[in-house]
Amino acid sequence: MNVLVINAGSSSLKYQFLNVDTREVYAKGNCERIGIDGSFVGHEENGGPKQKLEVALPDHRTAIKHVFEILKAVDAPIDGIGHRVVQGGWYFPESALVTDETLGWVREVAPLAPLHNYAEADVIEICRDMFAQIGNVIVPDTAFHYHMPEHAWRYALPRDVVDTYHVRKYGAHGTSHRFIWRTVHELRGDKTHRLVSCHLGSGASLCAIEDGKCMDTTMGLTPLDGLIMGTRCGTIDPSTVVYLNRVGGYSIDQIDTMMNKESGLLAVSGRSSDSRDIEEGAHVGDEHCQMALEMFYYRTAQLFAEMASSMQGVDTMAFTAGIGENSAEMRQGVADRLAWMGVHLDAQKNAVRSDEPRVISTPDSAITCMVVPTNEEYMIALDVAELLG
Ligand code: AMP
Where are the residues marked Transition state stabilizer as a site (predicted)? Predict the structure, then answer.
């Protein structure tokens, strides 16, 4: 089955066209600057060179038309479309076929993720209307966390506030964490009942997974919570918002921008949100970069222990996403701060670069540590195949 996976943002639209059975990626790309001057499509076919096609993309409808036009060059029919949805709210315990009802849900919960859900809902509607013969599936990033125990998702706020505004932990990166569990389980079977999946990219979250079920995760109502990220501050005292507003004179919108776009590794290092630049700075003695790394290791190890505690133990730790898959130094930094839990990496194995899932801990490590490249598009395509198959 051939599936087109779409990941729409407010001014961008990423796509990947792949075969679920062979995992072959026929083509992938992204439409950038939709609705803004200078829009273009970056497109790659069968691992070939990336082409930049400068086209006017006044809206998402035009972008989708372009994507379908470009994909005509691929000699394979589109059998289904999978839509990544950032926030499924209290509605989606799993992926679902697009209907008037499910599309309505995506819009209803959009105030929780306004930058993403509105655009995603529009794109889903456009695809459904333009290509009525192709099945469309909604794959919410929160669905995997839906069944977290109540003691993990409930916020200790007044019940009527929680109920009226649906303020609770929803988590994010669920599709990636689900893929990591699936892969680790395929490789390790019953040796892993309790996994902490560590998705460390420009956005970062940990997820405690026991026998395939999410027990807790570090992101909360929104993807701002938890770990220190590229430009996001992660968990801080919530009163900071009130204080900055009342005493600092910052508006709520300014604080929102500050905490999401101007904080995290970027703010602490004063150099970059990219871990490669920060590692480089730290190596040449930049103290701010050294502190950014130290804080990243400290918080990641601390929250790892929190995730382990939610399962009363942990068998396997899996690193994934941009930092988790590529930075041996960051993996080592986190693992060093977990030596008290019996985590020990094999330095040689940790240094290996590969696209394959692999073990990087020593045989006597109390927790098996792995690197597992994530593949959210494939996971989405699998859901499409299951629901349409
Ligand atoms: P992601 O959001 O998963 O695409 O991850 C993006 C982040 O991963 C970048 O901002 C970098 O900090 C980090 N990253 C990507 N590639 C590498 C690499 N080769 N070495 C170290 N860090 C990397």
Answer: 173, 232
pLDDT band for 115, please (50, 70, 90 cuts). confident
Determine the residue type at 154. R
Atom of ligand 1 nearest to the CA of 203: 2
Q: How far is the CA of 199 from the centre of ligand 1 (A)?
A: 11
Mutation pick for ligand 1 pocket among 276, 278, 279, 350 (CB with most ligand atoms within 8 Å): 276
Strands 204-210 and 213-217: antiparallel
Per the CB < 8 A criterion, the answer to whether 193 and 221 are in contact is no
By annotation, the residues acting in catalysis are: 141
133, 79 in Cβ contact below 8 A? no
> 83: helix, coil or strand?
strand
Find the Cα–Cα–Cα–Cα dihedral 372, 375, 379, 384, rounded to 10°.
Answer: -170
Q: 326 in ligand 1 pocket by Cβ < 6 Å?
A: yes
The SS3 assignment for 27 reads strand
Q: How far is the CA of 277 from the centre of ligand 1 (A)?
A: 10
Q: Which domains does the chain have, with CATH numbers?
A: 2-140 (3.30.420.40), 180-371 (3.30.420.40)
Distance CA 3, CA 380 (A): 9
Is this structure's pTM higher than 0.90?
yes
